[in-house]
Design goal:
Helices cover about 5% and strands about 50% of the residues. It has two helices and 34 strands. Strands 23-34-25-30-31-32 form a six-stranded antiparallel sheet, with no helix packed on it. Strands 24-33-26-27-28-29 form a six-stranded antiparallel sheet, with no helix packed on it. Strand 10 and strand 11 form a beta hairpin. The protein binds beta-D-fructofuranose (FRU). The site of beta-D-fructofuranose has 13 residues, from strand 1, strand 5, strand 9, strand 13 and strand 18. Beta-D-fructofuranose (FRU) binds next to strand 1, strand 5, strand 9, strand 13 and strand 18.
């Protein structure tokens, strides 16, 4: 697929001409009830997340006419409550020579009523190139907005020549924040030695940036790091990134690309920093490129892309003219052990239908529609069990290993596992074609797409000697 420039007018014309395609997408049986999904075509990373004057803006990498035409946009939805979403026309398109093959991923920084969007302008040359050390440009671009809908002229801030000399052409996905009264920008990078890192830049005015240092563990960890995020909760600092090229190690790093966080010790003054142990953000089949932002209430909120690039799974929605979605919104918090955890955003409780509850020792067996929330609380930690969900999902726990078996659920996913010493809580969100399983209040999460028949679905738990409670809510 050749990614070609397309301006707003051409978008509108192409969209009008493909009205039947858009309508076919809306009839797809896999369309979600409560997830952000592309109006048509392809969606990937969440971008530019922010809240302005009470309205949450969620942008995303969007290729509406995929696979027919390759033009990339920033798609755009807004919400005030995370229950009702409004679709808008794409926000950014490829209309300058610095982003002519796509406004790639980026993020939002707000100050004095202005939203500053920093993103990567992708340029791909036609010809015989390796596209790693040549054949492409990844430009850092700034565009501002006061309302999230109308945008300033784009301004080129940095080109590949402005990044450190040992970088390949892969430097992208800027995020900007303020520390110690100064501005900092991080970018994901691949060096010419094929080592992934996060580059740190500094600025006095958000426009002129100078390179400061790179965050990298002592031992190389993959060849490329995409989509970095920095966040600080209390005194805890974290760096998120998506490393590519980390070999599988038993049940660890089972997906083709990784996504996780490092605890960061750094005061943003000198050059000395420490990265702690890498913790995977997700243990399922379909999670990548998450972005975090702070809302007006001060909460750190995360959306992820519910897919992994190059995973090779089948996506039956393609036949219906669309593919991929974002996760549910999740709030980040730090638990007593200092671990960064994710919990479903409180607002999602408003989706709940009438509660049904019971005790595990009395058995859990019920019919269900595909859209539900299930909460299981185990007293004194769990012994072995099997939890059957929907048509063919088996979530089992034995000898300290929690396994999600999705063989037979459609889409080619198989088994993913996680060591959990003491399992005490599961909270499960099922939508038409997704499953998000929060383990122990979000210390770990399994996120996956699911393509079962959506008929005669059930929930059944063979709980053995387990004691505890369950709550079920139709959505
Ligand atoms: C991650 C990513 C980003 C890039 C974007 C392009 O999925 O590869 O690094 O900016 O997608 O769509």
């Amino acid at each position: 697929m050749v990614k070609s420039p397309m301006k707003k007018d051409a978008y509108r014309k192409n969209f009008q001409e493909r009205r039947d395609w858009y309508e076919r997408v809306q009839r797809s049986p896999f369309r979600f009830k409560y997830h952000i999904q592309p109006p048509m075509g392809w969606l990937n990373d969440p971008n530019g997340l922010c809240q302005k004057d009470g309205v949450y803006h969620i942008y995303f990498q969007y290729c509406p006419f995929y696979p027919e035409l390759g033009s990339i946009f920033w798609g755009h939805v807004t919400t005030k409550d995370f229950i009702h979403y409004e679709e808008h026309e794409p926000a950014l398109c490829s209309d300058t020579k610095w982003d002519c093959n796509g406004p790639y991923s980026g993020s939002a920084y707000q100050e004095d009523g202005v939203i500053y969007f920093f993103y990567t302008g992708n340029v791909r040359y036609e010809g015989d190139y390796n596209y790693v050390t040549d054949g492409r440009e990844q430009n850092t671009i700034l565009v501002t907005s006061e309302d999230g809908f109308t945008f300033s002229e784009k301004q080129l801030l940095m080109k590949n020549e402005d990044y450190p000399a040992d970088m390949s052409k892969h430097v992208r996905d800027p995020q900007v924040f303020r520390e110690n009264g100064r501005y900092f920008m991080i970018q994901g990078a691949r060096s010419i030695q094929d080592e992934g890192s996060i580059l740190l830049f500094e600025s006095e005015d958000l426009v002129h940036w100078s390179y400061k240092l790179r965050f990298q563990p002592e031992q190389p960890f993959g060849y490329m790091w995409e989509c970095p995020n920095y966040l600080k909760i209390g005194e805890h600092r974290f760096l998120f990134t998506c490393p590519q090229g980390v070999p599988r190690d038993g049940i660890e790093f089972a997906n083709v690309y990784q996504c996780g966080w490092f605890p960061l010790t750094y005061d943003f003054e000198g050059e000395d920093y420490e990265l702690g142990a890498f913790h995977s953000l997700d243990r399922g089949f379909d999670f990548y490129a998450p972005q975090v932002f702070r809302d007006e209430a001060g909460r750190w909120i995360l959306f992820g892309w519910m897919a992994v690039p190059d995973s090779g799974y089948e996506e039956p929605t393609l036949e219906d003219g669309w593919v991929h979605a974002l996760t549910i919104p999740r709030e980040l918090y730090v638990n007593e052990a200092g671990l960064l955890c994710q919990r479903p955003l409180k607002e999602l409780e408003k989706m709940r239908g009438e509660k049904v509850q019971g005790r595990l020792e009395e058995g859990l067996e019920r019919e269900t529609s595909p859209c539900f929330e299930l909460k299981i609380l185990m007293e004194e930690g769990a012994g072995a069990f099997e939890l059957h969900l929907r048509e063919a999902v088996v979530l089992s726990y034995e000898d300290g290993v929690l396994s999600l078996d999705m063989t037979g659920c459609g889409g080619g996913r198989t088994v993913r596992s996680l060591k959990v010493e003491k399992l005490w809580k599961l909270q499960i969100f099922s939508d038409t074609s997704s499953l998000e399983i929060f383990v122990n209040d979000g210390v770990d999460v399994f996120t996956s797409r699911i393509y079962d028949s959506m008929e005669d679905l059930e929930i059944r738990m063979d709980a053995g000697k387990l004691r505890g409670t369950w709550e079920y809510y139709p959505i």
